[in-house]
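Propose amino acids for all 728 sites.
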């Protein structure tokens, strides 16, 4: 059968086609072992003959290929050892006025023979910085003039490395493509789809993508592969949807006059419009006899917890139990404390007689064993309606009487596997699931794009929430640097508290003692919690200011103690890693300083700054960086600076990460990433694919007509990826 051939060809070992030496080199460079992996190593771009590469856009510290013209050559002797340096300056304009790039060749006899003023060549190497200019040292090069006249086709520029430069990839790809035939790479998309969308056959698409006659052919081939990915994923999800439709959950309709109603009546504030609308959506879901699978999005501080709590109470009223999963012990404990407080007497089991109050338990890894045993008993008997905890809740010892709802807070911090483990705790049916986040992880955004996850959104903050102002602090400028520390002191003098977040806990042995003297010394090195604490301790203006460190290497009790005393106002400045990232709620904290902010991801930064401005006092977040204002990573910081809309940020995050990991855990040799499809840019393609798949699945003869397609989906998604998709 054709599909079997397809798998065997794409999964065939490269060495069978390219020889041992080449295949070993490819494995070393990219980890590729199969034909399919190399085939999907697509060019990043193409160079048209006569077109030069814009030098100002070259990424620093990456391996690049540049087509440019030599504008100057020179030679100098080495001072300290024998030999000479042959220096070539190239430009990206044929006339004068282009951007220039220097290249150096140590003992460059060959380069001296080959490269003259006016020569146009393709250079490959790593972009470095030398004195005040960009340079490539010891680049590989291929002179273009004659070759390009003989063959006017665009030149593919591949992701390459020093050991596996562009030219070699091109040669190997050419060699591999010689083995191509229609039979070996058969089409599996339905022909009528290819016709409607004007896509080339699969075999032709690979040829066009790697060696297009014209660039527009490569573009169409790219669309085809992106569509293929969207289509296959959508098909897999469609199949899954049919299975999920068959899954059972217990309906948990509201019961008037019980905990949920009592809770609403005792709330000290009125719910916002958004909270009410979202609450209604969730309540309706819980009434269904199939599992809810809903994402609750809302900015930090938008009041998601109250919404979740109302859903929890509805389930408890209907006789079920709920579990609230938090990513850290600190956060779980904080949820426990604030939920107990919000519930008041409603958290006392049996207080009002049968079915009135309910037990609320905290269960974390550090729980004492006596307490733990008691808690487990309450959970197993059903006396405890709400269990709050970390992933310790997933341990096998935890037996629920009737788990009806799983709420996952700050979902971006959890693996899908963990959530799944908890959901499997329900005995005969699947519990309803609600995941909450301020910044959805890329995979979640993807799932909503694919129409696979229901979403509820809280857009407006509750009244009285103060705004957060965010600023980038360029550390290269002394004025800003000094001001940063005065700003911290001022904040403390006002009676407020400050977070200082550093990208790591301690310095490596080699750096210890070097970084501590002053901030200037740390330029280029990320500042650690320990050196920050030491540095602040040594600054006269910080005399009398109480600082404390918090990070993951402290034991749980110490962490808790520090957090507690910060919450009580006994610490002025808390220096920490991202352990304080989520949920921590200290109303008096008004300033957050994030050191070397470019080291953090978009959603992390957004989560972090949500820690300030929580108590009606306006919050400020200062993000420091040593990078130049026009560095790409500073662009990311500017995005954070410009908006507090979590959804906008999630999209920016997704665009930046290129959706690499949405298909799940990276498995060697498996297809766990999207190659061509961009969740952001190809949205309309995904919608098209969804329509196409819907039409296909509606076809009464679907199974018999598309047997081949079904097995192609099987091959396309490997076992672990399919399993992964099935879990969420
Ligand atoms: P998040 O969405 O970040 O989880 P929380 O649920 O922690 O936000 O809510 C932040 C704060 O706002 C809490 O102190 C909560 O009690 C309060 N809050 C929630 N809803 C409202 C509301 N409708 N009016 C006023 N305050 C509210
Ligand atoms: Mg929260």
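Proposal:
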């Amino acid at each position: 059968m054709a599909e079997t051939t397809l798998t065997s060809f794409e999964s065939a070992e490269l060495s069978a086609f390219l020889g041992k030496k080449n295949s070993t080199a490819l494995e070393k460079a990219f980890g590729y072992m199969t034909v399919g992996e190399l085939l999907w190593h697509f060019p990043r771009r193409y160079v048209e003959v006569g077109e030069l590469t814009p030098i100002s856009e070259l990424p620093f510290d990456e391996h690049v290929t540049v087509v440019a013209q030599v504008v100057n050559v020179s030679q100098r002797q080495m001072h300290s050892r024998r030999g000479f340096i042959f220096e070539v300056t190239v430009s990206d304009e044929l006339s004068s006025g282009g951007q220039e790039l220097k290249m150096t060749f140590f003992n460059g006899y060959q380069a001296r023979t080959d490269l003259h003023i006016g020569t146009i060549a393709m250079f490959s190497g790593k972009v470095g910085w030398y004195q005040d200019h960009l340079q490539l040292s010891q680049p590989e090069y291929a002179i273009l003039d004659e070759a390009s006249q003989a063959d006017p086709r665009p030149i593919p520029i591949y992701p390459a490395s020093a050991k596996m430069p562009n030219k070699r990839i091109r040669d190997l790809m050419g060699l591999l493509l010689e083995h191509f035939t229609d039979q070996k790479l058969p089409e599996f998309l339905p022909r009528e789809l290819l016709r409607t969308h004007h896509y080339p056959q699969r075999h032709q698409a690979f040829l066009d993508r790697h060696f297009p006659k014209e660039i527009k052919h490569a573009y169409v081939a790219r669309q085809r592969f992106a569509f293929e990915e969207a289509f296959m994923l959508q098909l897999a999800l469609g199949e899954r949807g049919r299975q999920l439709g068959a899954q059972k959950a217990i309906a948990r309709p509201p019961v008037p006059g019980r905990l949920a109603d009592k809770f609403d009546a005792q709330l000290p504030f009125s719910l916002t419009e958004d909270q009410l609308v979202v609450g209604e959506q969730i309540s309706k879901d819980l009434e269904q006899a199939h599992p809810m699978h809903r994402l609750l999005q809302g900015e930090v501080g938008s009041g998601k917890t109250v919404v979740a709590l109302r859903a929890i109470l509805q389930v408890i009223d209907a006789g079920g139990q709920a579990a609230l999963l938090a990513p850290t012990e600190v956060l779980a404990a904080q949820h426990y404390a604030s939920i107990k407080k919000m519930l008041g007497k409603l958290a006392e089991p049996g207080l009002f007689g049968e079915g009135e109050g309910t037990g609320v338990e905290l269960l974390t890894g550090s729980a004492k064993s006596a307490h733990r045993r008691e808690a487990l008993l309450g959970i197993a008997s059903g006396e405890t309606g709400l269990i709050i905890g970390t992933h310790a809740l997933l341990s096998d010892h935890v037996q629920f009487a009737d788990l009806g709802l799983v709420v996952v807070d700050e979902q971006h911090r959890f693996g899908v596997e963990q959530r799944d483990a908890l959901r499997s705790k329900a005995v005969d049916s699947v519990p309803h699931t609600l995941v909450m986040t301020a910044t959805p992880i890329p995979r979640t955004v993807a799932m909503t794009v694919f129409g696979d996850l229901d979403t509820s959104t809280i857009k407006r903050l509750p009244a009285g929430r103060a705004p957060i102002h965010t600023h980038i602090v360029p550390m290269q400028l002394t004025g800003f640097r000094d001001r940063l520390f005065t700003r911290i002191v001022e904040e403390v003098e006002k009676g407020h508290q400050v977070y200082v977040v550093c990208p790591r806990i301690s310095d490596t042995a080699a750096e210890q003692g070097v970084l501590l003297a002053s901030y200037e010394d740390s330029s280029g090195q990320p500042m650690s919690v320990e050196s920050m604490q030491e540095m602040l301790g040594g600054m006269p203006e910080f005399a009398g200011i109480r600082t404390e460190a918090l990070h993951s290497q402290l034991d749980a009790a110490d962490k808790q103690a520090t957090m507690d005393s910060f919450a009580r106002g006994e610490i002025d400045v808390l220096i920490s890693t991202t352990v304080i990232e989520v949920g921590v709620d200290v109303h008096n904290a008004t300033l957050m300083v994030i050191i070397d902010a470019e080291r953090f991801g978009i959603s992390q930064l957004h989560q972090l700054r949500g820690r300030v401005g929580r108590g009606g006092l306006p919050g400020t977040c200062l993000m420091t960086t040593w990078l130049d204002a026009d560095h790409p990573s500073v662009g990311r910081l500017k995005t954070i600076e410009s908006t507090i809309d979590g959804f906008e940020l999630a999209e920016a995050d997704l665009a930046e990460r290129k959706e690499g990991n949405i298909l799940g855990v990276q498995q060697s040799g498996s297809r766990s990433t999207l190659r061509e499809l961009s969740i952001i840019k190809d949205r309309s393609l995904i919608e098209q694919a969804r329509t196409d798949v819907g039409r296909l699945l509606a076809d009464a003869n679907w199974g018999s007509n598309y047997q081949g397609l079904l097995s192609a989906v099987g091959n396309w998604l490997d076992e672990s990826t399919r399993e992964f998709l099935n879990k969420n």
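The domain at 259-458 is CATH 3.40.50.300 (Rossmann fold). The two ends are 32 Å apart (CA to CA).
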